[in-house]
Write a structure and sequence with these properties.
Keywords: 2Fe-2S, Iron, Iron-sulfur, Metal-binding, Oxidoreductase
Strand order of the largest sheet: 11-17-16-15-14-13-12
Pfam family, one: Ring_hydroxyl_A
Cofactor: Fe cation
CATH topology of the largest domain: Naphthalene 1,2-dioxygenase Alpha Subunit, Chain A, domain 1
GO molecular function: 2 iron, 2 sulfur cluster binding; iron ion binding; monooxygenase activity; oxidoreductase activity, acting on paired donors, with incorporation or reduction of molecular oxygen
Order of helices and strands: HHHEEEEEEEEEEHEHHHEEEEEEHH
Bound molecules: 1-methyl-L-proline, FE2/S2 (inorganic) cluster, fe (iii) ion
Radius of gyration: 22 Å
Distance between the termini: 16 Å
Shape: globular
Structural class: alpha+beta
Protein name: Rieske 2Fe-2S family protein
Number of strands: 17
Number of helices: 9
Length: 423
């Protein structure tokens, strides 16, 4: 396989991963070195994280001109800002004078972007507006902030650090947009955001997310509403979960009927393996009252998103390779972005979005809104930490996936294909 890559400048770097991938047993977890080796990690940064479309946030996080967020990944800091003409743009967070970071990590709002070092000043569209004592011979038009590729799909913002990003997100966008727009992220606001650093490799974080094999025992709060048979086909449902699954089928039929009446798409669209922007989107029912991620399934926000009138829309779940999962409900949206920090540390950023006119303390309570996923994230962080410790142990031998883990297998196959990809 490596012979085909001769002449490809990335070939030498990717062999350290291909040596492991070429010798692994299909349908089994990855060799330990792929979760621990610093060289493997650096190769992934080059071949995946600097080349693919990454979920960075939502338009609700930059609602007004001058509002910005930062997204730090792969040694780059991306500054996403809404310009004075309301367009959301992305730039490298690097001053064009001598390279200082322009803004500190986090969110904020500016009139102009002023570098703290020598006061070079950029408009929100990235153009250089002012540079004290800069020689008139120097062309200011060439000294605007360097842009980063950005796409907005139904209010979700994706960026790519690639010089020539792949076109796959543009192809996927038409399949995705109609699922997202009923939730009107352009009319939503951030109710809460939590950064959690998990002590494990980024692939363990994604793999953990891509199965619910661990949900039944591992997520007591989540499984009040998230059916633990997620990802199983009919014949794989174990007897002890049969009653749960029968409720799922009943709720699913009801949800499909209501979605069809409202003209809201719900059918599964899934292409998680072959394409650079691997994704899966589907609207599925929630257990209990069927409205939200609460203990009894009742809504957590009085004011529904956008113009939605029906609170029982289950969850529209959108998984994307390599770094996001998102749940869109009638009353709120919760987004998760993943960024690798080191071979054994990964940032998971969770953001809860509600209608922009929902009033905290009246329409929702932040503690209650965030309780289930804060607990679930902590539980998942423990699974990831324990797995990182185990796969780093010389005794670790990759073990077999079962059918409930087929999305983990899809993720690993996507990873294999993208490492081999020459674009
Ligand atoms: O949040 C999610 O979408 C995934 C799916 C199954 C397990 N995990 C909760
Ligand atoms: Fe930004 Fe000098 S490095 S103004
Ligand atoms: Fe989990």
């Amino acid at each position: 396989m490596t012979d085909q890559l001769v002449g490809d400048p990335a070939a030498g770097r990717r062999t350290n991963i291909l040596d492991h991938l070429d010798h692994r047993t299909p349908g089994h977890s990855l060799p330990g070195a792929l979760y621990t080796d610093p060289e493997v990690f650096e190769t992934e940064i080059d071949l995946l994280w600097r080349r693919r479309w990454l979920f960075v946030g939502t338009v609700a996080e930059v609602p007004e001109p001058g509002d910005y967020l930062t997204f730090d990944v792969a040694g780059s800091s991306v500054l996403v800002i809404r310009d004075d003409d309301e367009q959301v743009r992305a730039f490298h967070n690097v001053c064009r004078h001598r390279g200082s970071r322009l803004v500190a990590p986090g969110n904020g709002s500016v009139g102009n972007l002023v570098c703290g070092y020598h006061s070079w000043t950029y408009a929100t569209d990235g153009s250089l507006r002012y540079a004290p004592q800069l020689s008139p011979d120097i062309d200011r038009a060439c000294l605007g902030l360097r842009p980063v590729a950005l796409r907005e799909v139904g209010g979700l913002i994706y960026c790519s650090l690639a010089a020539t990003p792949d076109g796959d997100l543009d192809l996927a966008a038409d399949q995705i947009r109609d699922y997202l727009t009923p939730h009107r992220l352009d009319r939503a606001k951030v109710a809460a955001q939590v950064d959690l650093v998990e002590e494990g490799n980024w692939k363990l974080v994604l793999e953990n997310n891509r199965e619910c094999y661990h949900c039944e025992g591992g997520h007591p709060e989540l499984t009040c509403t998230f059916f633990p048979t997620w990802g199983l086909s009919e014949d794989q449902v174990p007897d002890r979960l049969r009653a749960d699954h029968d409720r799922y089928l009943f709720a699913e039929a009801d949800l499909m009927r209501r979605c069809d009446e409202l003209g809201i798409p719900h059918r599964l669209v899934e292409d998680l393996v072959e394409r650079p922007f691997g994704f899966r989107i589907q609207r599925e029912p929630l257990d209990g009252v069927g409205e939200s991620f609460s203990i009894d399934g009742s809504r957590l926000v009085g004011r529904l998103l956008g113009d939605l009138a029906d609170p029982q829309l289950g969850r529209c779940t959108f998984h994307t390779q390599p770094n996001a999962w998102i749940h869109l409900l009638a009353d709120h949206v919760v987004t998760f972005s993943v960024t690798p920090l080191s071979p054994d540390r990964t940032l998971v950023r969770t953001t809860w979005l509600v209608h922009e006119e929902a009033v905290e303390g009246v329409d929702y309570d932040v503690e209650a809104l965030t309780a289930v996923w804060r607990a679930t994230n902590e539980q998942d962080a423990t699974f990831v930490r324990n797995t990182q410790l185990g796969v780093a142990d010389p005794a670790y031998v990759p073990g077999p996936y079962n059918e409930a883990e087929r999305h983990v297998d899809y993720f690993v196959r996507w990873y294999d294909a993208q490492i081999r990809s020459e674009v």
